C-alpha cells in the first residue's frame, strides 16, 4: 500500500446521515435493526465499493444482519484477530520469548577464549535497556575480555525478513520493519526493528541536530534539515532508501520549538541488536569485536538470559496499537514451536489448523501473513464473526477481549486505535473491536453489548472505496448495535456519531503514524 496524506480539518464533526423515508408502520425487533443498517450502508461513498457486514447474537446463534457475508475481502489489520486467537491456542497465554548470551569457549579468569553468541527467539519487546542488563550479567560473571567475536544467532526463524505481498515502498517505515528472531525496539510501544529519529532545532537558517534513539550505527543519518523561524510549523520527513542503511532526514523545525520525532525501520534487526549489545558490553567494561552471524554450538552454556512478558500481556500492545511485527513474530513462532520451522509457511499451516478448531473454515480464507499488511490476504466477514463468537468459549477469551481497542477510552493502552472514535455515544466503553486500515480498505470487527444487555459480535469490512475511509459509517453501525434492544427494538434512523479528523496519512492505522 502507499502512504497517503490527509488534511487537518480541526475539531470533531458530527455525522448525520439522511433518514430514509419509510412507508407503513415502523419496523420493530431485528427488522428495525436491519432497516437502520441498510440506511447507513446506503451512503453514496460506498457506491461501487464492497461493503460486507455481519451481526450475530452469540447466545442464540441468530444472524441479525448479513450483507455480502461470504464474499472475500481484504481485511487489513482485522487479520490480527485470526493470528491472536491462533497464537493463544497454539502457544498459550503464558508463552514467553527468550533471549540469551551463550558460549562454549574456555574461560581463564576474566578472559573468554572464544566467541560469544547473542541468541534470540523472536522477542519483539527487547529494549536497549534490556541489552544493557544482559551485558551487566556478563560483566557480573567476571568476564572482561572476549578473545573471539560477538556472533548473532537468529536461526530460530528463517532469513526471510518481509512478508509476501508487502509493498516495496512501505519497507522504510517502522510498521513494515523486517522480521527477525533477534531484534530490538526503541520504546514501550515495542515497534521491533525500528529506531526513533529525533530532530532538534538549533538557530534559524542552520541545520537541526539529529540523533537516533537508541544510539546505533546500523543506520546512517543524512541531514538535509533547516531550522526555521520561531512559530513556523514543523515539517520533517524521514526516508530510508530501499534496501539501504542510509536515512535521509529533510524538512524544517522551528527555532525554540520542541524536537520532532519520527521512526525508521532498520535493514538488519539482528545487526541492530548486536550493535546495541556491543555498546552495552563496552559500557560495562567488557571488550569484544563484532563477528559474523552464526548458530550457537550445541551445549553452549548460558552466561546471561532474559525472558519476555507472557503472551497474555503482549496482546495489549499487539492489538491495541495494531503492531504488525508482533503478528509476524507470532506466526513464525507457531511454526517453530509446533512444526520445527520458524517460517511463514509453517506458521500459517499452524494458524489454519488452530482456526479450524475455532470453527473457522480456512478453505475460504487466504492468509499469507499474520498482520494483514499484505493486500493478498482475503477473508470473509462471516468467518470473522464465527471466530469472535467461538472465541467466547475459550479459557483465554477474557485476555483476548480486553486486549482489543475500546471505543472512546482515552488511555492509549485501553482505547488503542479506537480511543478517538465513538466518544460520548452508547458505544463508548462498550465496543471492543479490532480496526484495520490501508488504502481502499477499512474494517472493524469485535464485540458490543446491546441496550438489552445481550452481547453481539459484528464485522464490518469496506473495500474498494476511493474517497477518505468511511470509518464514520462503521462507527454508526457500532453505535446502532449498542442501542439494539432485542425484541423491543424500534427503528431509530442513523445515529449522529462524533467523527474526529486529524492530520494523518489517509488510509493507514492511526497507530502506524502515531496519531492515536
UniProtKB/TrEMBL annotation:
What are the record keywords, sorted?
Carboxypeptidase, Hydrolase, Protease, Signal
Give the matching InterPro entries.
Beta-lactam/transpept-like, Peptidase_S13
- Full protein name: D-alanyl-D-alanine carboxypeptidase/D-alanyl-D-alanine-endopeptidase
Tell me its EC number(s), please: 3.4.16.4
Say yes or no: keyword Glycoprotein present.
no
The keyword Transport appears for this protein: no
Which residue stretches, if any, does this entry annotate as coiled coil? none
According to the UniProt entry, its GO molecular function terms are: serine-type D-Ala-D-Ala carboxypeptidase activity
The signal peptide here is 1-25
According to its UniProt record, which protein family does this protein belong to?
Answer: Belongs to the peptidase S13 family.
* Top EC group: hydrolase
Species assigned in the record? Saccharopolyspora rosea
Amino acid at each position: 500500500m502507499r502512504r497517503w496524506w490527509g488534511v487537518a480539518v480541526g475539531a470533531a464533526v458530527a455525522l448525520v446521515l439522511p433518514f430514509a423515508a419509510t412507508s407503513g408502520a415502523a419496523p420493530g425487533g431485528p427488522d428495525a435493526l436491519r432497516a437502520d443498517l441498510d440506511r447507513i450502508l446506503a451512503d453514496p461513498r460506498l457506491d461501487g465499493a464492497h461493503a460486507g457486514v455481519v451481526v450475530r447474537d452469540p447466545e442464540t446463534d441468530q444472524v441479525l444482519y448479513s450483507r455480502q457475508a461470504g464474499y472475500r475481502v481484504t481485511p487489513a489489520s482485522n487479520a490480527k484477530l485470526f493470528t491472536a486467537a491462533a497464537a493463544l491456542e497454539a502457544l498459550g497465554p503464558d508463552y514467553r520469548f527468550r533471549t540469551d548470551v551463550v558460549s562454549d569457549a574456555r574461560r581463564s579468569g576474566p578472559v573468554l577464549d572464544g566467541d560469544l553468541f547473542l541468541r534470540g527467539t523472536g522477542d519483539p519487546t527487547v529494549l536497549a535497556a534490556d541489552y544493557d542488563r544482559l551485558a551487566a550479567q556478563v560483566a557480573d560473571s567476571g568476564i572482561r575480555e572476549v578473545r573471539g567475536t560477538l556472533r548473532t544467532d537468529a536461526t530460530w526463524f528463517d532469513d526471510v525478513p518481509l512478508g509476501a505481498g508487502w509493498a516495496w515502498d512501505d519497507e522504510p517505515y517502522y510498521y513494515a520493519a523486517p522480521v527477525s528472531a533477534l531484534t530490538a525496539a526503541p520504546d514501550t510501544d515495542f515497534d521491533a526493528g525500528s529506531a526513533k529519529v529525533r530532530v532538534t532545532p538549533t538557530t534559524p537558517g542552520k541545520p537541526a541536530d539529529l540523533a537516533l534513539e537508541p544510539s546505533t550505527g546500523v543506520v546512517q543519518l543524512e541531514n538535509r534539515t533547516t531550522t526555521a523561524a520561531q512559530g513556523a510549523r514543523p515539517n520533517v520527513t524521514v526516508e530510508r532508501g530501499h534496501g539501504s542503511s542510509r536515512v535521509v532526514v529533510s524538512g524544517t523545525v522551528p527555532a525554540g520549538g520542541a524536537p520532532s520525532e519520527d521512526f525508521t525501520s532498520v535493514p538488519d534487526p539482528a545487526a541492530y541488536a548486536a550493535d546495541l549489545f556491543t555498546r552495552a558490553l563496552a559500557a560495562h567494561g567488557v571488550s569484544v569485536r563484532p563477528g559474523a552471524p552464526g548458530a550457537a554450538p550445541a551445549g553452549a552454556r548460558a552466561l546471561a538470559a532474559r525472558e519476555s512478558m507472557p503472551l497474555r500481556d503482549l496482546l495489549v500492545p499487539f492489538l491495541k496499537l495494531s503492531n504488525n511485527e508482533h503478528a509476524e513474530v507470532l506466526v513464525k513462532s507457531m511454526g517453530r514451536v509446533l512444526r520445527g520451522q520458524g517460517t511463514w509457511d509453517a506458521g500459517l499451516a499452524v494458524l489454519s489448523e488452530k482456526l479450524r478448531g475455532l470453527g473457522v473454515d480456512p478453505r475460504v480464507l487466504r492468509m499469507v501473513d499474520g498482520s494483514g499488511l499484505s493486500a493478498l490476504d482475503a477473508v470473509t466477514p462471516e468467518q470473522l464473526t464465527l471466530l469472535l463468537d467461538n472465541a467466547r468459549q475459550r479459557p483465554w477469551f477474557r485476555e483476548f477481549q480486553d486486549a482489543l481497542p475500546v471505543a472512546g477510552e482515552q488511555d492509549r493502552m485501553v482505547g488503542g486505535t479506537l480511543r478517538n472514535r465513538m466518544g460520548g455515544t452508547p458505544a463508548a466503553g462498550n465496543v471492543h473491536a479490532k480496526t484495520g486500515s490501508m488504502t481502499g480498505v477499512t474494517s472493524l470487527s469485535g464485540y458490543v453489548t446491546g441496550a438489552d444487555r445481550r452481547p453481539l459480535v459484528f464485522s464490518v469490512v469496506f473495500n474498494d472505496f476511493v474517497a477518505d475511509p468511511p470509518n464514520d459509517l462503521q462507527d454508526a453501525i457500532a453505535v446502532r448495535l449498542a442501542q439494539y434492544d432485542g425484541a423491543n427494538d424500534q427503528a431509530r434512523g442513523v445515529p449522529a456519531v462524533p467523527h474526529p479528523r486529524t492530520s494523518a496519512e489517509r488510509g493507514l492505522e492511526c497507530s502506524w503514524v502515531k496519531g492515536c
